[in-house]
């Protein structure tokens, strides 16, 4: 998102001091229910405590010894501070979809992975870098500039942290854990909470003076069929690559020869899964988890091999495949009008001449192992990259080593979280577009958690069949 810089001012016109802050704290009750063992948000149940003697000076530990307390600021008081110097750093800890839908201007979205939160609970994290958990590139840049300004200034600076409601009556949220962490690490910054959270600020700002709503274009993009971008009739495109498998249907490039030039409307038909490979023979397959912990197919002798081909998952927009090994593959991407590349493989650098100059390139270093750490964060970052491509109206190619596991997990996460497909429907759709996919069971487990969080239900893979 573009960062709106506050108007210039001088020290003679600094804002008046805030009224005395309101102290807020979370404490436990002797009648609290027993605490579940998994996950901070479930475990705290109206309690969030910081040990006075953590395992490491930078490692807050959640224990029953000291309450988390913080001064709070009302929506009206925050509104009076916005646009003035020194600007507070607004940290929005809601999930990315909510943040993208509507947010306070100049706020950054921060999400702590569940794994990290669990480790903070156990006191096993020794360092904390806020930049690592900022969800967008724009947010990272804004935070870096805010830090530079803070380093140069002698004025007092504030963090303002919030989620949807900052309620003290619900389970302690990641927002409250972040309050505790920042209080520990940033002794020279005043950590505040927004009283009533984002919802209270939205109700207060009735004219949406400080709010940025979801763009109209992006809203349309999730509900309508995409008209492909139109190019000049004189544009010379390389021919599509000959398929490396005689039995594989190659993707036909978009024909622009008879299309009049007009402004493109980027909208995508995501009302439900549709086959991206309608000419493949109908087949009935049963899925099972194999000994190698991958989701494998039983009876696929006549399945076409797509090992070296680009597969079209969502028509004209989302493509899936293996590593890029040379300039012929680059030409193939150009033929499909692809503008962005997302590399999901830790071991691949895509050092192909012209690749990173011709495409907007992203890399998320994922390992194809069942015990990979940080899978939730990896999937969340991948969804953000694909979402940004959609907003920019730029087709994207997602790949890993073989186009079967890590890249598939990224695309499944996008279909579930952004397009609201069930995981089962998303899996059926992707395997029709690219037979032979086999995301490892660790990725599937994390995707099922994502589905539960996003849709409130979990798909059953035990008897998955594809007609």
TrEMBL record:
Keyword Hydrolase: yes
GO molecular function, one term: protein tyrosine phosphatase activity
Gene Ontology biological process terms, A to Z: negative regulation of MAPK cascade
Domain Rhodanese: 84-207
Keywords of this entry: Hydrolase, Protein phosphatase
Residues in coiled coil: none
Gene3D superfamilies: Protein tyrosine phosphatase superfamily, Rhodanese-like domain
Chain intervals for the UniProt region annotation (Disordered): 1-40
Compositional bias (Pro residues): 1-22
Keyword Membrane in record: no
GO CC term, one of those recorded: cytoplasm
Domain Tyrosine specific protein phosphatases: 376-437
Enzyme superclass (EC): hydrolase
EC number from the UniProt entry: 3.1.3.48
Domain Tyrosine-protein phosphatase, first and last residues per copy: 308-456
Low complexity bias: start-end ranges: 23-37
InterPro entries reported for this sequence: Dual-sp_phosphatase_cat-dom (IPR000340), Prot-tyrosine_phosphatase-like (IPR029021), Rhodanese-like_dom (IPR001763), Rhodanese-like_dom_sf (IPR036873), Tyr_Pase_dom (IPR000387), TYR_PHOSPHATASE_DUAL_dom (IPR020422)
Superkingdom to which the source organism belongs: Eukaryota
Family indicated by similarity: Belongs to the protein-tyrosine phosphatase family. Non-receptor class dual specificity subfamily.
Protein name: protein-tyrosine-phosphatase
């Amino acid at each position: 998102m573009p960062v709106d810089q506050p108007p210039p001012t001088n020290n003679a016109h600094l804002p008046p001091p805030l009224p005395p802050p309101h102290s807020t704290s979370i404490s436990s009750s002797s009648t609290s229910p027993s605490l579940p063992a998994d996950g901070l948000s479930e475990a705290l149940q109206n309690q969030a405590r910081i040990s006075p003697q953590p395992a490491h000076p930078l490692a807050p530990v959640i224990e029953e010894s000291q309450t988390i307390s913080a001064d709070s600021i009302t929506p009206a008081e925050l509104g009076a501070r916005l646009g003035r110097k020194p600007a507070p750093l607004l940290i929005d800890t809601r999930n990315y979809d909510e943040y993208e839908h509507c947010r306070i201007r100049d706020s950054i979205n921060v999400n702590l992975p569940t794994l990290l939160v669990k480790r903070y609970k156990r006191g096993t994290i020794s360092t904390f870098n806020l930049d690592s958990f900022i969800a967008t590139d724009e947010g990272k840049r804004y935070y870096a500039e805010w830090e530079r300004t803070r380093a140069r200034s002698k004025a007092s600076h504030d963090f303002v942290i919030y989620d949807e409601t900052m309620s003290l009556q619900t389970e302690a949220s990641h927002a409250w854990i972040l309050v505790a962490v920042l209080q520990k690490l940033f002794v020279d910054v005043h950590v505040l909470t927004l009283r009533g959270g984002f919802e209270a600020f939205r109700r207060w700002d009735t004219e949406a003076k400080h709010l940025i709503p979801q763009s109209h274009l992006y809203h349309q993009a999730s509900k309508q069929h995409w008209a492909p971008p139109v190019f000049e009739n004189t544009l010379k495109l390389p021919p599509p690559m000959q398929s490396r498998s005689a039995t594989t249907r190659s993707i036909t490039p978009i024909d622009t020869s008879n299309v009049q030039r007009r402004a493109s409307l980027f909208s995508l038909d995501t009302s439900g899964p549709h086959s991206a490979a309608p000419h493949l023979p109908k087949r009935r397959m049963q899925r099972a988890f194999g000994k190698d912990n991958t989701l494998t197919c039983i009876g696929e002798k006549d399945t076409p091999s797509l090992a070296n081909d680009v597969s079209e998952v969502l028509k004209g927009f989302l493509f899936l495949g293996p590593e890029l090994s040379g300039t012929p593959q680059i030409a193939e991407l150009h033929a499909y009008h692809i503008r962005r590349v997302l590399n999901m493989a830790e071991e691949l650098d895509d050092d192909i001449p012209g690749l990173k100059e011709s495409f907007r390139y992203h890399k998320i270093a994922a390992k194809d192992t069942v015990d990979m750490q940080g899978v939730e964060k990896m999937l969340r970052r991948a969804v953000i990259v694909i979402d940004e491509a959609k907003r920019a109206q730029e087709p994207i190619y997602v790949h890993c080593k073989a186009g079967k596991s890590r890249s598939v997990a990224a695309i499944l996460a996008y279909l579930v979280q952004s397009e609201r497909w069930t995981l089962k429907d998303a899996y059926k759709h992707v395997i029709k577009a690219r037979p032979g996919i086999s995301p490892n069971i660790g990725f599937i487990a994390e995707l099922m958690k994502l589905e539960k969080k996003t849709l409130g239900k979990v798909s059953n893979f035990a008897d998955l069949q594809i007609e």
